Amino acid sequence: MVEWTDFERATIQDIFSKMDYEAVGPAALSRCLVVYPWTQRYFGNFGNLYNAAAIIENPMVAKHGITILHGLDRALKNMDNIKETYAELSVLHSEKLHVDPDNFRLLADCLTIVVAARWGKAFTGDVQAAFQKFLTVVVFSLGRQYH
Amino acid sequence: MLSEKEKKLIAEILERLTPVAEDIGSDALLRMFVTFPGSKTYFSHLDISPRSAHLLSHGKKIVLAIAEGAKDISQLTVTLAPLQTLHAYQLRIDPGNFKLFSHCMLVTLACHMGDDFTPVAHAAIDKYLSAFAAVLAEKYR
What does the pLDDT look like over B15-74, one tens digit per residue? Predict the structure, then answer.
């Protein structure tokens, strides 16, 4: 089981309580599709992903970004049981969506960078470490049921 | 693969960072030490506490080398030749750490540049840092 320090719990809750889901979700997913273009393979039916501007303005990308970000709320409310929390979603991503679990890490990195850009200097090394630890656990849990 | 546009963007961004190389470099290093503690093992002989002289000078060295390489990316192998030898035969830092540092550089840039660190800029710099790391590790084996 993952051990969280008080600082980590408080920091992670703080980051999400200040999160503008409608802005950060779309920004993180679109950034991932721009920086790692091969991830577009999973979004063949999302319409125009032809260039960075198109991706950033794509309403389906935006909507999905918000959905994904809210998906993290579950882990937030169950920090002591993240693996179980995502068991079903892991099976879904493996057996139905066929997403290479490496992509979860890429998206997590993009999310970190979007949050960092919004927080600026307040996103210290300690805050980054706590946030990345949380995302690492989520990423691991989402990949856990692949076989 | 870097387009001409991207090379230009990279050179521009890194030129702007050169005057604050110390701050950017030490910030990225510190983030790496906190987020990926294994990376600290290469610095047991230095004082890497926040704002220490060692951390500032080391951070500055790294960012200036990255900026220098950006001036002519097609010549990276030539520009980095001495650093390649240093890392391969003396420092022998596991190249996995280059990725970790690159990630922390990106986070530092995001904090520093805010909205100016657009997805296109992010992609360009990420590609450059990957190329830089690959060239740096070329003499390892």
Answer: 999 999 999 999 999 999 999 988 998 898 899 999 999 999 999 999 999 999 999 999
How far apart (Å, rounded) are the C-alpha atoms in residues B5 and A36? 18
Give percent above pLDDT 70 in chain A: 100
Cα–Cα dist A127/B107, whole Å: 12
Cβ distance A121 to B111 less than 8 Å, yes or no, reads yes
Q: Tally Cβ neighbours within 10 Å of residue A71.
A: 14
> How many whole angstroms separate alpha carbon A9 and alpha carbon B27?
24
Q: What are the DSSP calls for B96-112, one per residue?
A: HHHHHHHHHHHHHHHHH
- Assess whether pLDDT exceeds 90 at residue A100: no
Taking 90 as the threshold, does the pLDDT of residue A147 lie above it? no
Q: B123–A34: do the CB atoms touch at under 8 Å?
A: yes
Q: Which residues of B touch A118 (CB under 8 A)?
A: 114
Query: What is the pTM (predicted TM-score) of this model?
Result: 0.89
- Do the beta carbons of residue B48 and residue B87 sit within 8 Å? no
Comparing C-alpha atoms, which of A118, A116, A115, A108 is closest to residue B27? Answer: A116
Model ipTM value = 0.80
- In chain A, whose CA is at the least distance from the CA of B30? A125
Chain B partners within 8 Å of A136 (Cβ): none
Q: In chain A, which residue's Cα lies nearest the Cα of B119?
A: A31
Burial of residue B43, with CB atoms counted within 10 A of its CB: 0-12 exposed, 13-18 middle, 19 or more buried: middle
- Tokens at B91, concatenated: 């420092």
**Calpha distance A128→A108 (Å, rounded):** 12
Contact criterion met (CB below 8 Å) for B129 and B105: yes
Compute chain B's Rg from CA coordinates.
14
Q: What pLDDT, on a 0 to 100 scale, did the predictor assign at position A1?
A: 79
